């Protein structure tokens, strides 16, 4: 599947597998970040429909060259017709010399804004 409205994403692959009555969803994201091709393989750790929260765990890819663990939490807060999306990163650096993942956050903010533009037009 190609993510058609975000120009920096090359492709997204989705794999579904039934594991003892639970569903494993593995996403592979190929994208451009800072002018370089990147790959992120992640699984959805949890989906909370009541609280509108999804937690992704990075299991392979470029981020794990810098971080021992990396979780992405997405929460949507709805007020009337407005939706506010909050992205939260939980990560452990491999060593103190590694910077915080601000370019990754900027990338995700851009995706959120492009999705919003797509849905409003």
From TrEMBL:
Residues 1-121 form the Bet v I/Major latex protein domain. It comes from the Eukaryota. It holds the Pfam family Bet_v_1. Signal peptide: none annotated. One of its GO terms (biological process) is defense response. SMART domains: Bet_v_1. This is Bet v I/Major latex protein domain-containing protein. It comes from Escallonia rubra.
